[in-house]
Amino acid sequence: MGHCFTFPRITVLILYCCCFIITATTAVDPPTCDSSYGCISSIRQEDCAKGEILISGGSLNGCCPGCRGGRTYLAVCNLNIPDRLCAPGLKCVGRKCIYDRSTCLHTMHLDKDLVGWIPKCNLDGTYAAKQCRGDRLSGRCFCYSEDGKRIFGWDWYRNTERMTCACSRRRDKLEKEGRFDVTLHCTQNGNYEELQCDSGLCWCADELTGSVQLGTTVVHESLWELLPCYNSTLHGESYLRQCESAAQAQKLILKKFYAHGTVGVTFNEIPCDYDGAYGRYKVENGV
Ligand SMILES: *[C@@H]1O[C@H](CO)[C@@H](O)[C@H](O)[C@H]1NC(C)=O
């Protein structure tokens, strides 16, 4: 046995074999979703068979979108039998398929003639950010949160090609996470205004995504007038709009009361819209 290893050529061969085995073992791992194969990105709901719903992870081991069918609304189902599962958007409760309202996909089982309007869903079951009603000429589009709540932002259908609702969604998310002092400014359609300040920093933002415009930098809020997107006519001397300033002042006063041990002081919280204007629900003198 020992003498085999004294021959260089055999040693090389053994090493080669080892390498090959290692490579082969690696290749046997199940493919992950970001490995070689790509998905057919152009597949649409219209390409699915009747009763099937296009969802993310519907094909290729959950890596690509695909059409999935299943038992229909109120049909008898069984969680343990593969061909008795409910279709996406439905859940099996008491051996019957009922609406799973935690996903937007349940709306695809609603009767369009009865409910009048079916929202648009993303393939992952969240609600699409932009929801349009009516026709392209006179209809309107509105911004929605992932879980289907109407949030700030709207425009006429005909103007909505570049409407993303990204700013509106971001603010809504941050506020739901408990931040009460978000100062991102959204345009009327829910996109980002060009100049943004939040958490003590300011930057020139991409209208559609809010990310920092190429070739520009993020600055401390005291230097916001140095940003290339700053325009004195447009922005003036303060980033905060009148309503926001009032709301911030109110918060500062509250903070001082608390610091002095005074509790139980309440204000009607001043609601500002995401564009910094007074919200729709401003109550003045109890009216
Ligand atoms: C600044 O804003 C005003 C008002 O919108 C506009 O008329 C002007 O062209 C802007 N100036 C620059 C340098 O962009």
Automatic annotation (TrEMBL):
GO biological processes: cell-matrix adhesion
One Pfam family named in its UniProt record: Thyroglobulin_1
S-S bridge residues: C167-C186
Highest taxon listed in the record's lineage: Eukaryota
Annotated signal sequence range: 1-27
GO annotation, cellular component aspect: basement membrane; extracellular space
Locations listed in the record: Secreted
Domain Thyroglobulin type-1 per the UniProt entry, residue ranges: 101-165, 167-229
This protein's record includes keyword RNA-binding: no
Keywords from the named record: Disulfide bond, Repeat, Secreted, Signal
Stored PANTHER family: NIDOGEN-2, SECRETED MODULAR CALCIUM-BINDING PROTEIN
Protein name: Thyroglobulin type-1 domain-containing protein
Organism: Anopheles melas
